[in-house]
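As a next step, we paired sequence with structure tokens, yielding the entry below.
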Amino acid sequence: MVIEPILKRRAVREYENAAISDSQLEDIIRAGQFAPTAHHNASVEFIVIRNPKTKDALFTLLDQEFVHDAPVLIAPVLDRTKSVAPVQDLSVATENMFLQAASMGLGTVWKNVSEEESEKVKKLLGIPSQYLLINLIPVGHPKGKTVPHSDAEFSAKKIHREKF
């Protein structure tokens, strides 16, 4: 049931020093590749970053400790010339990846990459100029226990019928 990983998915910013296997990574990226895209353009691509020197350089650019500490980072990117809804396509792929990771007991967080930061990160990672980068996805085993969402957090008051 898809609600289970939705309830388990929390923003994780602290990670254990434990490796993520290639097969785990492939499953997470597979979920991103199978995400819907506008006009079924399937233009989202993924850069996997494990090298400590590259993560150090990204930490220097982005100044958030979890960028450095996560065992792996995934940079979803998209060729803007192939998509009519690039931000939406990247966002849906990212959410699919979050849910797959949560279903595997792994933690993730959306690391926003501003437009200014994006140009620097693209240069560092060799991403062609026509590609859009809006976020990084740190992936790892959560340090400590994450508490799933509960029914108490659900608000029926946020549901509007026919009109606001």
